[in-house]
Design brief:
Layout: E1 3-6, E2 25-30, H1 32-35, E3 39-43, E4 51-53, E5 74-81, E6 90-91, H2 93-103, E7 112-116, H3 126-130, E8 134-135, H4 137-146, E9 150-153, H5 167-172, E10 178-181, E11 193-197, E12 208-210, E13 214-217
Parallel strand pairs: 5-7, 6-8, 7-9, 9-10
Antiparallel strand pairs: 1-13, 2-3, 4-10, 4-12, 5-11, 11-13
Length: 218
Amino acid sequence: MARVVDLTQDIHPGMQLFPVFPKPSFVLWTRRETYGFETEAMFLVTHTGTHVDAPYHFHAGGIRVDQIPPERLLGPGLLLDFSDWPEKGLIGAEDLRRAEGAAGTRIQRGDIVLIRTGWDRYLGSERYASGYPGLSREAAQYLLDCGAAAVGVDSPNPDHPDAGDFPVHNTLLPREVLIIENLANLGAIGRPRFRFIGLPLKIRGGTGSPIRAVAIVE
């Protein structure tokens, strides 16, 4: 029987976000006593919590989030383990090759590649925001050359925290390789191969969207 593993952060007013973003807020909009039902209005950035970056986020000619075909975020997943990587460790192309060898499989065209650093254990701390390992430009190019459909991380950013020019974003997004950030619980997947589902809201013209990311493990 298949297991379903939730890979998604909770969205709540006290959650940690990229420093330039406001916290989400929720306002009770209709009360059960008045209308017979309750609803809330919410305000949040489209890059809140576990989310996908559309190519337009960094690339003016890129597709918007509502133009992403659903099948791009529903497909074969590959987990590469860097959970023993040091703080601010740089993950290069050769490191990805070694991780493939440890997993006993290679990146295939169309794979949704998830990079497990274990950094979600620091969620809520300054360490989570500034100390995470990141991919090099060469690593991003390797993922592109292998035909990855999307690349996800359990940290705020696939780019190294000291890389101010966003080399990973600027390598992958112009070629329509999607980026998934702020994943959680990747260690619970327990095997290299699985099915990934992480569909965004169909926000017309949006640069990104929160997703409910899950792994289906046979």
